Amino acid sequence: MVQVLKSTDAVIVGLGWTGAIMARELTRAGLQVVALERGPDRNPAEDFALPAIRDELRYSVRQELMQDPKMETVTLRHRLDGEARPVRRFGSFLPGDGVGGMGTHWNGNTFRFLPSDHRLRSHLGERYGRASIPEDMTIQDWGVTYEELEPHYSRFEALCGVSGKAGNIAGKIQAGGNPFEGPRSGEYPNAPLVASHANELFRRAAGEIGLHPFPAPASNASAPYVNPEGTQLGACQYCGHCDRFGCEANAKATPLSTLAPSLRQASGFRKVTNAYATRVLYDAKTRRATGVRYIDLRSGETYDQPADIVVLSAWVFGNTRLMLLSGIGEPYDARTGKGVVGKNYCYQIQPTVQAFFKDEELNPFMGAGGLGMVVDDFNGDNFDHAKLGFFGGGYISQNSTNGRPISFRPTPPGTPAWGAAWKRETANWYRRTATMLCEGTNYPNRTNALDLDPTYRDMFGQPLLRMTFNFTQNDRTMADFLLGKAADIGRAMNATIVAPQPRKGDFNVVSYQSSHNTGGTIMGHTPADSVVNRYLQSWDAHNVFVLGSSVFPQNAGYNPTAAAAAVTYWCADALVKQYLKAPAPLVQL
Amino acid sequence: MLDRRGFMLSGGVLALTQTDATAAVDAGPDKSSAAAQTSAAAEPLYALTAGEAEVLTAVVDAFIPADDLSPSGSDCGVVVFIDRQLAGSYGAGARLYQDGPFQPSNGQVQFGPQSPLAPLQFIQLGIAELDAWSTANSGTPVKQLPKPELNALLQQLESGKIALPRIDARAFFGALLQLAMEGFFADPIYGGNRDKASWRMIGYPGLPATYAKAIRQYRGRRYQAEPRSIADFL
Ligand SMILES: Cc1cc2nc3c(=O)[nH]c(=O)nc-3n(C[C@H](O)[C@H](O)[C@H](O)COP(=O)(O)OP(=O)(O)OC[C@H]3O[C@@H](n4cnc5c(N)ncnc54)[C@H](O)[C@@H]3O)c2cc1C
Ligand code: SF4
Asked: Which residues of B touch A423 (CB under 8 A)?
């Protein structure tokens, strides 16, 4: 039996980065907010304390802080006529779970997208002619511009105490920053992190071959920092246990470290943990949502939480799946190209180059989540694509994030994976290898999409989300191009061995690439091309708002969280300043 | 007085668990030293049979042979590690989606293993199949194979040249190698990586991992420290 709870102003599904930001903004505006989170609550002081938090096996390999696929996973097929198989253990991407979401165990790279990323179809059309965009590449403009988002990017950076060096302040190029970035309103809140030796080798080499290296902007505070919420962050210890772990030093910006203290004090805020949302309660006749149904994972009981406003912040898979399960918006059909929910699912392609140095000591175990030296010369449309045969690009960086030995044990090409020779090479190179990462774009393709799986179910018997995905020729050509450039840098670093590691073959869910999935509930200009309008408001239910990278029409060559947070602030602004006064569609057609 | 942990580490359990397992492991090939035999036998088995542990010992020592860089895999406790992992929640299939229908992977490794078995049963079946294959094809069970033959067998398994009747041979090899490496490189609290042998071998300092000053001070210079485990902080 379903128990109906007392109605509230707003219900939020998922309490990661975007959900926590929205909860903060709505309670600030005086609303009563209930946040449903399927995972547990977390208490950093206890849960992330030394020495237990430095356990590579438990957190990194066995993925203790992440989504449990036993309860819910996704299925994959590479092409429309293929048979999907469930992702039985997460590998390539690692969805979050629990208060803080993925933001608990992210790395902290906090990049803004390029202005052109936010209006990609227009931009490429203007520069190369509209006919140059392949028919199957279903890119589009976001509907909101970089200029409109700039204050919101700045707000997120201030919240996180991002450590970095500006490259473009109000149109003036700044030495040592990224000359390709969009104009910023100001400097970063904190100075860059201390560069590692590998970072320095990269910086020197990239500069020598005419590129423009800059320190990666990182939500790992380089010094103690108090954010605008009044919460205190500690200084990063370069512990090398950032990604996949909680931060013992409270230096990594997470929803728990930056927003939870304010939310705890907000009288209008209530979080319900172990609450698994299964439906948005949707009245198709009035085209309004009436609330959210969820299952209490401890008691097994089902509840309806009525609300005037429904916010989906359950990340890419959760948002898309809830829309499909609830019948909001027309599901996308990849064969006909009709419908929108599930369309433009994108990922990233991330080849790497290993540079081995016989005479350098690199101490790979010293590192921080966002500790990197980056070049952006080959990202987005920062370089001329006229004769290249592909669109897109990515940043190339030397990341010194961790040297945890279960997972990081580089050996030169040709080394066996075990035995005496493997041991010798492992011992020889562990301390002397720098990895260069190419963070490659992924532009949508007509056939890459999400829908409900006809066969496989979650633990409550509901259809899993099915992913139809493979890399396209555009992605592969782009990735090879980036890899060549990264190898050039490796050679300029005077590495003894430069070993490019291309991503070959069909998309693989086993080896980690990134958790930078996007799309499924994309934003745009009309109900025909998008699920939500430029304010992230559902075209089909004006009181439903969808947050996070699921609204990106295509992916960029950057980590997505700053952009996801920026559109969340943008949405909250519209919600509070416009929608609350007159609840109605914010975009009239 | 020795606490339980000290007791186990000191080899005190050996006398209590002197079983067929101990005798059998002692009889295994290529044991380099008496000390090695003691440490390999000093822990009880929780999930695997003595016979299974013998096969694993041979395989793990092929993966991680003893040399001047480190003791062998089994001497570092890797078999103990694998046994404990398989006896616990991981072995029972924690964080593994196990609903059907199950489709054979047909060599499509991109989807990850698709077996209906939980890791404990998967590894057990794999060990049995591999041992049977070895016996059928060379007349010798795995634990008695001379080193070069064992290495050759594992290479064939790795490259997909051996098909086992009831299990995806390459997935089995992959799982075994992954578990062995986890055991060798994980924090010693899990029973492997004894005396932090692998961390010493590569120069990984373990905990506490606070390098706020060191990252600048040791730029380009080797940072050397006695490696420390989680247990060293309790
Ligand atoms: C190892 C790792 C490293 C990363 N590093 C970076 C980086 O350096 N830079 C960067 O920009 N990004 C990084 N990311 C990605 C980043 O963490 C995400 O982009 C970001 O956290 C997404 O925020 P979100 O609010 O959209 O989703 P999340 O933070 O994942 O929050 C979604 C929440 O919804 C909950 N939920 C889902 N479904 C339901 C349901 N049905 N009912 C109730 N609750 C539900 C989930 O449990 C989760 O808590 C990394 C991710 C990982 C895994
Ligand atoms: S590297 Fe820095 S920010 Fe990351 S977990 Fe360690 S101390 Fe925290």
From this structure: 64-65, 67, 69-70, 201
Residue among A66, A67, A88, A468 with most chain B CBs within 10 A, to mutate: A88
The span from the CA of A202 to the CA of A197, in Å, is: 9
**Nearest residue in chain A measured CA to CA from B109:** A508
Nearest-CA residue of chain A relative to B91?
Answer: A62
**Successive 10-residue mean pLDDT values, chain A, 589 residues:** 97 98 98 98 94 96 96 97 96 97 97 98 98 97 98 98 98 98 98 98 98 98 98 97 96 98 97 98 97 98 98 98 98 97 97 97 97 98 97 98 96 98 98 97 98 98 98 97 98 98 92 95 98 98 98 98 98 98 96
Helix, coil or strand: residue B205: coil
| Ligand 1 closest atom vs CA A278 | 41
- Show the tokens assigned to A481: 């191009």
CA distance A36 to A13: 5
ipTM of the complex: 0.95
Residue whose CA lies nearest to ligand 2 atom number 6: A239
Of B63, B69, B215, the CB nearest to A427: B69
A149 backbone dihedrals φ, ψ, rounded to 5°? -85, -15
Contact A587, A537 (CB under 8 A): yes
Is residue A162 a contact partner of residue A218, using CB atoms and an 8 Å limit?
yes
Residue A542: CB within 6 Å of ligand 1? no
- Determine whether the interchain pair A418/B201 forms a contact, defined as Cβ–Cβ distance below 8 Å: no
Per-residue confidence band for B42, with pLDDT thresholds at 50, 70 and 90 = low
* pLDDT tens digits, B195-233: 999 999 999 999 988 999 999 999 999 999 999 999 999
Burial of A407 (0-12, 13-18, 19+ CB in 10 A): middle
Helices B78-87 + B50-63 axis angle, to 10: 130
**Which residue puts its alpha carbon closest to atom 8 of ligand 2?**
A247
Helix, strand, coil percentages in chain A from 3-state DSSP, rounded to 5 = 25, 25, 50
B-proximal residues of A, 23-52, CB under 8 Å: 50-52
- Phi first, then psi, for residue A367 (nearest 5°) are -175, 170
Q: What is the model's pTM?
A: 0.94
C-alpha dist (Å) from residue A315 to B70, B137, B208: 45, 52, 33
Q: Do residues B149 and B138 touch, judged by C-beta distance below 8 A? A: yes
Is the Cβ atom of A13 under 6 angstroms away from ligand 1? Answer: yes
Among A165, A217, A244, A189, which Cα is nearest to A372's?
A217
